[in-house]
Design goal:
It is a single chain. This protein is an alpha/beta fold. It contains 29 helices and 18 strands. It is 43% helix and 10% strand. It is elongated and about 130 Å long. The protein starts with 7 loop residues before the first strand and ends with a helix.
């Protein structure tokens, strides 16, 4: 049914007129600048007549719609609807602006069809100017019903914040508008604020109580709130561990995330919901750990923070298309979660622990153990966790050998192993070294009250290249079984490069086995007793470094065999021999090996005098600390014969300030990138040199006994 042009129909929203009438030339001036019709809101047409006319108008749109909906389904397919917009009937009956609106909505929507209700909503959706004025006047947006100029009011900061939170955390524009118009901050979002303040207060208390603060501590191990696996019956620990944190970095990250993410979520969803989500995350963390990782101590509110991030992440995943920068937010949340997991895991990032010393107080927690060393059960748990990542493992004297079974099962990648047990149980070593396939260095430190039988070594792999073995029973003649086991161990090491033996009384067969190791580059004998066939050491033709200390029965013939046959020897160290059969003539032999670049002769009070040093040529390092008969005369000859000398240790000798002057004079000829000469000398002599007001040149470095021990290691 078509209405006559100019006919108006009363509706609930006012009077809607035909668009043709509103846009006609006779009324164009009356409606200039407005797309809606004008009707006096005070129309006295009754409700029944208005409803009747509205139904008539709907019938008009139904007739137009049904022309392209012959089946009567109440909807037109998308392509058919686009054709209908270009048909002559719709062009004549529907205004151009309405057709443009319909075309735009169809193209922007992803629906396959357009329903009749959607069509009617567009055709009858306009409101009159008077109606708009009335609505704006009700909302105090215009000064009166007859004034269409909007009054612009700057919203307060609180409303701006509420609007921003609605835009960020809500997906539908209707929900955002409703939230911005109705949020009153009553009740206020107190949960996140209170939790944040309590966590900050706990951290402040324990920081003051323990007297220190750092990025990863202190961790209050003895607190009644920390979750401990050995105190699972104290049920409050499953939730209250969230109040404690492992360092200020852990605390700041948790507080930052829960304030930035949790506080807006609480403003939108309420304290009850967010509190339930937060506490569920905290309990999930402790309960899950108690089931799947039964040895872990827990601190921190990370479980609750993860729950908040997961809640927001779910919202972003489902509605990122409706959010501004949705993809960016999604990526940002993933980055935050990954970074937080990395930071939290750092305390438990066992893959970063490649060195472990069982007596390291800082590794465990010095405040918890105090002067006590961590018990073996704690050490075993650490090895279980980080064993597969360890390269170096040092176990002290308070550990029992039973721990070797744990080492064998979890330390498959360890390359350096040092053992210092008080008690060695042979059964604890059965099959252990067979599993340590990457082990290349082993150091056994025993005590005078204990012994370590080489039988424990029998499962060592053939790839071992360094052995340090202290027997711990100096003076005792080894048994036949001990000698056989030791010989078997040495014979099986096909690539042995370094062998250090302490407190061993050699017999002929054992020493003979050692002299057959052609791969040996370094040999150290400390507190050992040589056999009568010790001159067989000359067979170690590939030996480059030799260390001898407190060898009481050594003779000149032993030194002669070394110096005349070991042509590859580069370094020799002799300390406190206590060998009455060694004379100065034996040390004169050190001038024979042309390859010798480092000589260390220490604590030889009577055997060494100036004449011994006259023979040394082209040395790089010379140490004669504790040789009281050495004077400036010997050092002068050394500096003349060794122009490239880099280390000179004259601590405990009879040298004077003249030695420094000689060294300064000798190094003045060096230039460019030439190496420096480090002279270790008594502090009083250095002060005497400084009183001469003659500064040393840049190639001379003077160091006294405070730095001696640390610096000499650099050149070893």
């Amino acid at each position: 049914m078509l209405l006559a042009q100019g006919t108006s129909i009363a509706t609930i929203a006012g009077v809607v007129e035909e668009e043709e009438y509103a846009n006609s030339e006779t009324n164009s001036g009356r409606y200039a600048g407005y797309l809606t019709d004008h009707t006096d809101l005070g129309s006295d047409i009754d409700i029944d007549e208005s409803e009747y006319r509205r139904q008539l108008l709907n019938d008009k749109w139904r007739m137009l719609f049904d022309r392209f909906d012959p089946e009567g389904f109440g909807e037109i397919p998308r392509n058919d609807f686009l054709q209908a917009l270009t048909s002559a009937e719709w062009i004549n009956e529907i205004p151009a602006n309405k057709r443009d609106i319909l075309l735009t909505r169809v193209k922007e929507s992803h629906l396959n069809s357009v329903t009749f209700q959607d069509f009617v909503n567009v055709m009858s959706g306009k409101r009159t100017r008077s109606f708009k004025c009335a609505v704006h006047h009700r909302d105090r947006e215009v000064s009166s019903e007859n004034d269409f100029h909007l009054l612009i009011h700057e919203p307060p900061l609180f409303h701006k914040m509420v609007r921003m939170i609605g835009d960020e955390f809500l997906t539908e524009e209707r929900d955002r508008k409703y939230y911005a118009d109705h949020y009153t901050c009553c009740p206020p979002p107190l949960f996140i604020i209170l939790i944040t303040l309590v966590e900050l207060g706990f951290f402040t208390y324990y920081t003051v109580a323990m007297g220190e603060v750092n990025p990863s501590g202190p961790v209050p191990i003895d607190s009644v709130f920390i979750y401990r696996p050995d105190k699972r019956l104290e049920l409050w620990r499953f939730a209250f561990y969230m109040f404690l944190h492992a360092g200020w970095l852990h605390l700041l990250f948790n507080l930052g995330v829960q304030v930035v993410v949790g506080l807006p979520l609480e403003m939108v969803h309420g304290s009850l919901r967010i509190g339930a989500v937060y506490m569920a995350g905290v309990l999930a963390g402790s309960l899950g750990t108690s089931v799947f990782d039964t040895d872990v101590y827990l601190v921190g509110a990370s479980g609750g923070v993860y729950a908040l991030l997961a809640a927001h992440l779910a919202n972003v995943l489902l509605n990122y298309n409706n959010m501004e920068f949705g993809i960016v937010r999604l990526i940002g949340i993933f980055i935050i979660v990954c970074e937080k997991w990395k930071r939290i895991s750092k305390f438990q990032a066992w893959n970063e622990v490649d060195k472990f010393f069982a007596g390291d107080f800082y590794f465990f927690n010095q405040e918890h153990f105090g002067d006590r060393k961590p018990p073996q059960e704690i050490v075993e748990k650490v090895i279980i966790r980080c064993g597969q990542f360890l390269n170096r493992l040092i176990l002290g004297d308070y550990i029992e050998s039973s721990i070797m079974r744990v080492v064998a099962d979890h330390c498959c990648n360890v390359t350096y192993l040092q053992l210092g047990f008080h008690v060695h149980n042979t059964m604890d070593y059965v099959g252990v070294f067979e599993k340590l396939i990457k082990l290349h260095t082993i150091k056994i430190l025993t005590h005078y009250s204990t012994k370590f039988d080489p039988q424990n070594f029998l499962s060592l792999t053939a790839d071992i290249n360094t052995i340090y073995y202290s027997v711990g029973s100096y003076g005792d003649t080894p048994s036949r079984s001990w000698c056989n086991n030791f010989s078997s161990v040495i014979s099986n090491c096909h690539v042995l490069h370094s062998l250090n033996l302490r407190e061993i009384k050699f017999d002929k067969s054992t020493f003979k086995i050692i002299t057959k190791i052609q791969t040996l580059k370094h040999l150290g004998l400390i507190f050992c007793k040589l056999p009568s066939n010790s001159k067989k050491i000359k067979k170690l033709v590939n030996l480059e470094s030799l260390e001898l200390e407190r060898i009481a029965n050594m003779e000149n013939e032993f030194l002669q065999a070394i110096c005349e046959n070991l042509n590859n020897l580069k370094s020799i160290a002799i300390k406190n021999l206590m060998a009455p059969k060694i004379t100065r003539q034996g040390f004169y032999l050190f001038s024979a090996p042309q390859s010798l670049k480092s000589i260390r002769i220490c604590m030889m009070e009577r055997e060494i005098d100036n004449t011994v040093f006259f023979q040394f040529q082209n040395l790089i390092k010379l140490e004669c600390c504790g040789c009281q008969l050495v004077t400036d005369v010997a050092i002068k000859r050394v500096l003349e014969n060794c122009p490239a000398l880099e280390v000179l240790n004259v601590m405990g000798t009879a040298v004077t300030v003249a030695t420094i002057q000689l060294a300064d004079r000798a190094t003045r000829h060096r230039f460019g990138n030439a190496s420096k000469l480090h002279v270790f000398i008594h502090q009083n002599i250095i002060k005497d040199f400084e009183c001469l007001n003659t500064p040393a040149n840049k190639y001379l470095v003077l160091q006294h006994d405070v730095f001696w021990q640390n610096q000499t290691r650099v050149f070893n």
